[in-house]
Design goal:
The protein is of the alpha+beta class. The protein is built from 25 helices and 30 strands. Strands 1-3-2-4-7-8 form a 6-stranded mixed beta sheet, sandwiched between helices. It has a 5-stranded antiparallel beta sheet with strand order 10-9-13-12-11, sandwiched between helices. The protein has a 5-stranded antiparallel beta sheet with strand order 15-14-18-17-16, sandwiched between helices. Helix 21 packs parallel to helix 22 (about 645-665).
Length: about 775
Amino acid sequence: MKSIDESNNRLKLLCLDDVLNDVQLIHEILSDAGYQVRMDIAKDEKEYLSFLKEKEYDIILSDFTLPGFDFYTALNYAIALQPDVPFICVSGTIGEDTAVELLKHGAADYILKDRLGRLAHAVRRALGEAVKKKEWRNTAEALVKANNELQNLHNNLEEAIFSVDIIHNKMLHVSIAHEAVFGYSQAAFFENPLLWYEIAIPEDKQIINAGYPVLYAGKTLKHEYRITDSDGQIRWIEAKMSPTLDKEGKLIRIDGIASNITDRKHIEKELQESNALYQTIFEFTGTATFIFEENLNILMTNKECFSITGYLPSEMIGQKWTQLFASESLQVMMKNHYLRRQNPDLAPKKYEVKLVNKQGELRDVILEVGMIPGTKQSIVSILDITDHKQAEEALIKLKKAIDTSGEAIFLTDNEGLFTFVNPAFSSLYGFSSDEVVGKTTPRILKSELSGKSFYEVFWTTLLKGDEVKLEIINRKKDGSLINIEASASPIIDEKKNIIGFLGIQHDITDRKHAEEDLIAAKVKAEESDRLKTAFLNNISHEIRTPFNSILGFLNILQDEDVTTEERDEYIRSINQSADRLMQTINDIVEMSQIQTGQMKLENTDTNIKRLTDKLSERFGTAAIKQGLEFKITNELPSEILSFVTDGIKLKTILSNLIVNAIKFTQKGSIEIDIRKSDQNLLFFVKDAGIGISESQQKAIFELFKQADVSNIRQFEGLGLGLSITKSYVEMLGGKIWLESEPGKGSTFYFTIPYVSSELKGSSII
């Protein structure tokens, strides 16, 4: 793959040719023609495809024949990957038929290698045609887009748009709105171009006929006429049409727009009929209204003026209207007065001023002013908005208070659709106002943690018109749950109809968590107190029982009648009770030292065999006497004879676990195993005893707790052994856990870090 580059990439050329001399000649010819060429050369199909996919080119030149690759395949690749790039065949001798086929397949041109003199011209022409082709395509796409937009516009208009080919009596365009305007389908007008005329009522067809000369004269036409729609109803149609004439002045096309003005005609008719009642309407319009002359004199007032101005009609007629308004408003009013008579379209028909009533009170009013047609008189309606403005100001203050409130406040319509949410709502739930207002209901906040019956009671109460106060768990936008204290109230209009709902909510999650923590702490404290009491009772039992045994046997030993065999038995019992008492005291002292941080580690070289031998010596006989099989297995690699740890605490850990295993196993076996696990030593003590339920397994390592309090009296001991064991394991840098099932025994596992022994002297164990 070779590349010939020039500093300025004016002409990006891909050349498909395996003859380098031909390629260099092409480069020289185009350079001499004024092109600054950047040429990529592809000798085979793989290189050619790689260039097409990775780069963009201005033109592609290709030999007709290549080893293992043909021109038509190359042309198809170019058309598929870079369709706008001209493709020229530059080859040796090819026949005329082949040249024609090349052009039919999409080649821009072909050049014979023995006539490369026309190469530059062919390239220039091909590049020019490519530009024109691209411009033409862009223009065509723009026309299609514009036509689609125009079509969409026509389809969205309420007015019916149409175009008629007069020469061929054919509808060129009929918009969708025809059905709404005329009451007949769009298709019906395409099928029958004269349908609009046929459905006109007979007496109005003369209006339509009178319009033809106007259109044939090339003038626009606007007229109104009546039709009968498909349901037999009369409709008024307003049609506006524009003609198109040919060069000879002959009408060839009509474009128009038609509207259904039936409602407007009905209104016009009603207005005409109401003229007879003008005076009555003026008097009883319900709005303060007066008429004045150009010279400002009041001609007429209705009784409603009294409610706003405080003046009777007799007091106002003949007076200047300027006396009714505050001086600050007169300048604007006079300006509008003269402007209305000079240029009515520029004068505002409605504006706000200040009125001074007979009592001297300043009132905010809106004037709606119009000219009475054919006269210089003006008619004025006055609307007192003082109370409205005060209410608006109050609403602004209320909205500000709501917007700055820390409570989440929202309103819904009577269907439950959000109509307003304040910033605190958005802050609380994560939904912006635009995401919820007019689009969804408070159901998006439901967490599904409240049942159907809860919401049934909620809505029943709310729809009765009562306020609902509740605590509920809702869901935020991010899916997290929050505890909410909420109140919901119906919004009721003056007719006692519910028109919406008001919700006020605030986050009580922290409070709930605090309450839960307090409850949990109370339960824990009560449990701790109960356990401490049981523990103290157990201590009392564990101290008094062996102590009483010792005292009892000592008293018996003082009896001179005691035989030597009996004396030896009693002494063994005293020793056992003393050991038990000492173990109890040791457990209490060790637990106390652990809790107060006085227990220290003393790491030494610990011999594995010596450790296992002492455990076997101490517990093997006891297990066998109880009918249990006792087995210790050392699975450590042979090279590990000792390691560094606190040997005394390790021995205590194993002793406590073995004591428990023997204590709670009536038949079966006790197995102890030691093995290497990654960088740790793994120990386990397995028994076939009574087992521990899953719910009790975590509790047994806690202070003052045993798997089953009822076992305390059945099996001797304080229950501190596992607490001490867990503490020692953690002090040694390990962890402890168990697997157990009631009635199937337990296996206690623990690990401690393996530290290779560096000491060569004696070990503690």
